[in-house]
Specification:
By secondary structure, the protein is α/β, with parallel strands linked by helices. It contains 9 helices and 20 strands. It has a 7-stranded mixed β-sheet with strand order 3-4-5-11-12-20-17, with no helix packed on it. The protein starts with a helix and ends with a helix. The structure holds S-adenosylmethionine. S-adenosylmethionine binds next to strand 12 and strand 17.
Amino acid sequence: MTTNTRAIKALEAMKDLGISEDEVRPVLLKLYKLYDKKWELIEDDNYRTLIDAYFESKEDKAYFESKEDKQEEHKRKAPASCHDGEKPKQKLHLVDIDNQVLSADNSRQVLQDMKLTTNSQAFMAARDRKIYPGAASSEGRCKDPIDGPCHRSIQRKNMSRGNDKPKSHPGSVSTSCNGSLNASNGNLTVKSLSDVYQNTHKIEATPTCNNNTRTSKGNIDIGSSSPLGEVKSSLDCDAALRTGLNLSRNGSRQTLSEDKKKSFRYVEDITKGSENIKISLLDETNSEDFPKFNYIPCNTLYQSANVNISLARIADEDCCSDCLGDCLSLSVPCACSQETGGEFAYTSQGLLSEKFLTDCMSMVKEPQHHHYVFCKECPIERTKNETKPESCKGHLVRKFIKECWRKCGCDMQCGNRVVQRGLSRKLQVFLTQEGKGWGVRTLEDLPKGSFVCEYAGEILTNSELYDRIVYSTGNDRHTYPVTLDADWGSEVGLQDEEALCLDATNNGNVARFINHRCSDANLIDIPVEVETPDRHYYHLALFTNKDVSAYEELTWDYGIDFDDHTHPIEAFQCCCGSAFCRDRKQKGLFDNLTNLLLELI
Ligand SMILES: C[S@@+](CC[C@H](N)C(=O)[O-])C[C@H]1O[C@@H](n2cnc3c(N)ncnc32)[C@H](O)[C@@H]1O
């Protein structure tokens, strides 16, 4: 292999880890010279030496810069972490500071690094929409004179419920995918997660390296009960560093210190091979417990939800049985495009059309300008008080995409089948620096309108979700539900088993790691109809609403109303860092800090 090919391979290997070419190139060059062009030493053990050198160079850089940087002092004086009770990081990570632009951004970064106190796992109100995975309250769009009606589906667990009938505790059932058929496959018999509970295992916390046996490859064997599969810990297992080589400050090779042996952990594929593409997880700080959940690539029924997937339910006018190949190439758009006004929502490049995306974004930004429907008897209100439910607070009628499906004549490559083809973008779960916990970033540039992933979890009724929340405690709290209410109110008397939501807390896909960002998030959620013609059940797909560069964090506006103090469920303290952050508490702290910094300059 030529030097050039080997260099490209090395850069690609780093890219898969989430390390950009620009950052790693100088380190690679340094190693190449230092090791006298002996590529084997760099390539050994999956580029272990290069990885170590990269992280060490980051740490060194941060160390020297931090000494000169007065802001550092204020960081140490900073208040508590953004997550209450979060373990302190082993090291202060200052490495992003030099990438920030001028003082305003710097001070924001300082603020983020300070890890402000938060109420953490939030139950909160949503203002604009009824979907927000950061909260257990699964709806709550507000419509005061500005925002529209506001209602809440789930009360804080210590609040009494109108209906006190005893219920068993269905929540926190951790299950594996084994044996369950997923709804989105359109199987005629849909088996629920609870049906297979007996045969499944409880998800355990991923043990630390010390508690684990090691595989012959030197990786940590975390056993079949791990939700994350094989963990490659860069340095915390000595086997991972059998070469024992690293680049010291003066460039000589030396054995790693114990401290350095704990610098980061890497999971190659959290999906356990269940997606089209691997999704890695990188913890550069080695400071956070691995998330406890079971990866499921698509929505799966929990118990009582009624998702009736049968071809017979799809009327002839709701599919395009006579089509062939790619519907997007037809001169007259097929029947499925009727849903989007006779024009397809997708372009031939597989992106959302500009017009469709603009319309959807206007719904998020100005929900008060859009149409609401009101249930005669709202399932959410019924959940709160079965005997005397309050009146419905309204549901936004959202724009849907209708994809071609199995009753259609077109093939799987048809341009009107995007979400059902699953993940295709390189994503990585990583530990955010701002105190938001884990987050998701893209490892490739994503053009505006790209499909990223759908929000997958257990499909359950709102009553089931309510019970989960009521009975959950401590670590078991449910923090990842969204409500599928985009069409409620359009029919009389929605039954409980038809009023559905998704909970990705115990069983979910990569979307469960996507954090909230106020107003200028780079993702938007859009309802997508695939296998069911009614809208009780649909897929919630996340698309980019702007061009997103590789290594940017992917974020989604959960629609939280941080000003709603009347709601019994408190929102998390937002660390989104947006200039448009709606969390005033956070803004106040940010302003104070900026003033402090300005005084010091
Ligand atoms: C859907 S999860 C996102 C993944 C989560 N960060 C994790 O580590 O599992 C939502 C939770 O993430 C945290 N979170 C999301 N966005 C946040 C933000 N902007 N500021 C602070 N915490 C945030 C909150 O704890 C919230 O309840």
